[in-house]
Amino acid sequence: MRLALVASDGPRAQEARHALADAHDWVAPEEAEALVVLGGDGYMLHVLHGMLDNDRVIPAFGVNHGTVGFLMNKPRSSRHLIERIEKAKPISITPLKMTAVTNAGTEHSFHAINEVSLLRETRQTAKLEVRVNDKLRMPELSCDGVLVATPAGSTAYNLSAHGPILPLDSKLLALTPISPFRPRRWRGAILPEKSRVTFTVLQPDKRPVAAVADQKEVRDISEVRVAVAHDRKLTLLFDRASSLDERIFAEQFQV
């Protein structure tokens, strides 16, 4: 198997990269069949976004040398790395596509592996209209923000905002408000993954809103459209004893 090795700038990841330098006949990423990623979740997201941007997607086996490492495998002896990759369980994840239109009429499109978030830019509460599949579902949501999360991202920002954990194979999306003011008791919705969600910013001059697709931000937006990008599937490789679907399922029993 033609494998490439990439690492974040963190000292632990760089130390691991040096230790693995002679463990395999590494090739350049553009020639590889799979990618070994050393770092944390943030670096893995960076690498996956690079694949999406370059229209060349290959499986990625992450080794955690960051903090949480939810998208990564545990670091072990470098002698067994190739064997682990050969025996790894492939997990397919599908990102979201965000199309954001600014108040000036400029359109920006980005992909999100975890979630698309709308966030107020000032002390003023955001006011949003929410449509699902072109049908008006909420004429006015007053909040600090709102997000749409994939199953893979449901244990990240979505969970911190008290959104539901979605099993990886559920084919669902989480629509979760962030500190809702009106309607105060609305806790969000669970949507089929084929859903198209449109947010329209009410009073955009007085109450400016930013849209964020994972780490990519667009400010002063008037409208955001979110849908699953079925043509952009990604593949992560995991040790079979601790794959991503098992981790997401186990999160439901954490106290």
TrEMBL record:
Keywords: ATP-binding, Cytoplasm, Kinase, NAD, NADP, Nucleotide-binding, Transferase. The active site is at D41. It is found in: Cytoplasm. One of its GO terms (molecular function) is ATP binding. Its EC number is 2.7.1.23. It is an enzyme of class 2 (transferase). It catalyses: NAD(+) + ATP = ADP + NADP(+) + H(+). GO terms for cellular component: cytoplasm. NAD(+) binds at D41, G42, H46, N114, E115, D144, A152, T155, A156, Y157, N158, L159, S160. Belongs to the NAD kinase family. Its cofactor is a divalent metal cation. Involved in the regulation of the intracellular balance of NAD and NADP, and is a key enzyme in the biosynthesis of NADP. Catalyzes specifically the phosphorylation on 2'-hydroxyl of the adenosine moiety of NAD to yield NADP. This is NAD kinase. Pfam families: NAD_kinase, NAD_kinase_C. GO terms for biological process: NAD+ metabolic process; NADP+ biosynthetic process.
